[in-house]
């Protein structure tokens, strides 16, 4: 089997990181892989000199119509058994058209749960022999839009658990981020954009009456950083903006609680990472998040956008360290059982084998 993968993102996180796990697993199984990515992309640099054949092809986004003939040329040269399109930016629609022109079956990974116009979705997804959704929540969105259910498969995102279980001592965390060692440390790990729900969290914290000292660590970067920093200054607790960190596995396990108040989310890899590190979670009951956070097992779920319910859940877990520990331990077991990289690789392989057979 020879597979050609298309990833147009520049950074090695999110979907690109999932593809890196997949490529490493496929290469270990002696499957030939070609990776098409833009010049300078982090995932291309990651695999240069490896068993994965990296081919750099420029792609400036959805409007770069010239990407179609560029990719078609590579497909004709490489003659893969199928092409797997991994990113939305430029790769999904344009990549599907290129594969259709050349006559190579295409597989699309869909990682977001945002709705599309029904008439558009029914036409667009005919380009793909299979669409792999990273959660059942995403798959349900596609079915509701009239996409052929027989072409939809669910293969959940994965996390390599071991690095998240080797975190720094708590004292080192407090020194790194300027947090009091006696505080209950709440973390949020997400892009600083509207749909991640930071403002819902701030509203919840604004009215929180807690006996313990609480401090909030905000990991991530994005367009709302300056505005959120100004709003955080009015909160009745210290808020630390830590930016984007490449060394998150060192620190996540030091959190007492992860809060993910996103208004929509395909699955939430940061939720899987926190569970791997035995950190309890409060998340929104939206998109694929209920698949990563099982209410009462490894965390609590609240309605999206409901600051009062979020405040009550935070107060409940802040006041109960024993329950936090129990939820965290259950989350670690859940990752091993359902979200391993091996399960993700085998799930994708099963889809490939359907088509190649």
Measured distance between first and last alpha carbons: 10 Å
Q: pLDDT below 50 for ≥5 consecutive residues: which ranges?
A: none
Q: What is the CATH top level name of the largest domain?
A: Alpha Beta
Largest sheet: number of strands, sense, barrel closure: 7 strands, parallel
What's the count of strands?
Answer: 13
Q: What is the assigned CATH homologous superfamily of the largest domain? A: Glycogen Phosphorylase B
CATH topology descriptor of the largest domain: Rossmann fold
The dominant shape is elongated
Structural class: alpha/beta
Strand/helix succession: EHEHEHEHEHEHEHHEHEHEEHEHEHHH
CATH architecture of the largest domain: 3-Layer(aba) Sandwich
Q: Specify the number of helices.
A: 15
Topology of this protein?
Layout: E1 2-6, H1 15-28, E2 32-37, H2 42-47, E3 53-56, H3 67-78, E4 82-85, H4 92-102, E5 106-110, H5 118-124, E6 130-133, H6 136-144, E7 152-154, H7 161-164, H8 170-177, E8 184-189, H9 198-206, E9 214-219, H10 225-232, E10 239-243, E11 257-260, H11 269-276, E12 281-284, H12 289-292, E13 299-302, H13 307-318, H14 321-338, H15 341-356
Parallel strand pairs: 1-2, 1-4, 2-3, 4-5, 5-6, 6-7, 8-9, 8-11, 9-10, 11-12, 12-13
Helix pairs in contact: 1-15, 3-4, 9-13, 11-14
